């Protein structure tokens, strides 16, 4: 009962942060005006709310869901609390291929950039699998290989920035993770993926619970480890890839949200998955809201805000793991 109450409380927090996200910005909108803007199309602030802030807030929630649940699956499979899509190179792969489009094909149609980012995420995943298989490494060492793969893509991004310094603004905005300019098109492109992949992820909670026991116990319980690990990794990369393709290279959500959820509700994935998804959405909403008001009329990208929130927590996790070992 306590675990269910924590999930419900996190949902209520998301509703509160969602309302705040609709209210704050260069123009602050009161709750009565916000309500009338949603209900009446000819209201004073209806255009700001319905065409600018509402889709932006919705995509914050959807991307937070995707990145957080991707982190849950990944951390459970490799049994490493420091693993996340951005740590193992998936986000960097998406960023590199997005940068290729921005720098080499600046006049491409709008749909090419997210498609390239999604392709880059899966390319990084395939490269990670190939290297891991050749080295026959343990699941724990999988994270270290991912860091190396991410470093390769990051070097490629830096090369493109140096090579094409005149086209740097759009690339930096995308790679820092920004919700600026996101509208209903991005919501409609991300929503079907999340609606399909999120229930599938939750349906795999029993397998994730078994994987937590270790490979030997998983085999003893009749689990096809290699096949199931591949399918679950593919699910994690799909969630991270579609999220990054929509909002850019946002880090730390997939690292922090699963760990906080695990601290609150224990190791049962039937609770971890929904709670982590809600925490991820809340972090996105908080980061975006603060980023919009901290230097009005300009804004700080949400990826920068999540990094400010997440970096100290990452250091805390490192110190905790060091003491444990």
Automatic annotation (TrEMBL):
<dbReference type="GO" id="GO:0033214">
    <property type="term" value="P:siderophore-iron import into cell"/>
</dbReference>
<dbReference type="GO" id="GO:0022857">
    <property type="term" value="F:transmembrane transporter activity"/>
</dbReference>
<keyword id="KW-0472">Membrane</keyword>
<dbReference type="InterPro" id="IPR037294">
    <property type="entry name" value="ABC_BtuC-like"/>
</dbReference>
<dbReference type="InterPro" id="IPR000522">
    <property type="entry name" value="ABC_transptr_permease_BtuC"/>
</dbReference>
<feature type="transmembrane region" description="Helical">
    <location>
        <begin position="142"/>
        <end position="162"/>
    </location>
</feature>
<keyword id="KW-1003">Cell membrane</keyword>
<protein>
    <submittedName>
        <fullName>Iron-dicitrate transporter subunit FecD</fullName>
    </submittedName>
</protein>
<feature type="transmembrane region" description="Helical">
    <location>
        <begin position="111"/>
        <end position="130"/>
    </location>
</feature>
<comment type="similarity">
    <text>Belongs to the binding-protein-dependent transport system permease family. FecCD subfamily.</text>
</comment>
<feature type="transmembrane region" description="Helical">
    <location>
        <begin position="87"/>
        <end position="105"/>
    </location>
</feature>
<keyword id="KW-1133">Transmembrane helix</keyword>
<keyword id="KW-0813">Transport</keyword>
<dbReference type="GO" id="GO:0005886">
    <property type="term" value="C:plasma membrane"/>
</dbReference>
<feature type="transmembrane region" description="Helical">
    <location>
        <begin position="230"/>
        <end position="257"/>
    </location>
</feature>
<feature type="transmembrane region" description="Helical">
    <location>
        <begin position="58"/>
        <end position="78"/>
    </location>
</feature>
<feature type="transmembrane region" description="Helical">
    <location>
        <begin position="269"/>
        <end position="287"/>
    </location>
</feature>
<feature type="transmembrane region" description="Helical">
    <location>
        <begin position="299"/>
        <end position="318"/>
    </location>
</feature>
<dbReference type="Pfam" id="PF01032">
    <property type="entry name" value="FecCD"/>
</dbReference>
<keyword id="KW-0812">Transmembrane</keyword>
């Amino acid at each position: 009962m306590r675990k269910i109450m924590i999930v419900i409380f996190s949902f209520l927090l998301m509703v509160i942060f969602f309302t705040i996200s609709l209210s704050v910005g260069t123009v602050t909108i009161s709750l009565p005006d916000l309500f009338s803007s949603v209900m009446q199309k000819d209201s004073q602030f209806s255009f700001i709310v319905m065409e600018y802030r509402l889709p932006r807030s919705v995509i914050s929630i959807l991307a937070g869901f995707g990145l957080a649940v991707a982190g849950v699956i990944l951390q459970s499979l490799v049994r490493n609390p420091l693993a996340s899509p951005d740590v193992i190179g998936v986000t960097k792969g998406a960023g590199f291929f997005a940068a290729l489009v921005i720098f080499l094909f600046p006049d491409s149609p709008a749909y090419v950039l997210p498609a390239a980012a999604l392709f880059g995420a899966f390319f990084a995943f395939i490269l990670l699998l190939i290297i891991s298989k050749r080295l026959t490494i343990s699941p724990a060492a999988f994270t270290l290989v991912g860091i190396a793969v991410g470093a390769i893509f990051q070097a490629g991004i830096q090369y493109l920035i140096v090579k094409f310094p005149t086209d740097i603004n759009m690339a930096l905005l995308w790679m820092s993770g920004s919700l600026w300019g996101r509208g209903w098109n991005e919501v409609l492109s991300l929503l079907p993926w999340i609606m399909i992949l999120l229930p599938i992820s939750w349906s795999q909670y029993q397998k994730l619970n078994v994987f937590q026991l270790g490979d030997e116990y998983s085999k003893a319980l009749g689990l096809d480890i290699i096949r199931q690990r591949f399918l679950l990794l593919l699910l994690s990369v799909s969630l991270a890839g579609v999220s990054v393709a929509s909002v850019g290279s946002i880090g730390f959500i997939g690292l922090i949200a699963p760990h906080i959820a695990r601290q609150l509700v224990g190791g049962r994935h039937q609770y971890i998955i929904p709670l982590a998804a809600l925490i991820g959405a809340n972090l996105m909403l908080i980061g975006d809201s603060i980023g919009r008001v901290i230097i009005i009329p300009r804004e700080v990208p949400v990826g920068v805000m999540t990094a400010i929130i997440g970096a100290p927590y990452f250091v805390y996790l490192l110190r905790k793991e060091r003491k444990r070992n």
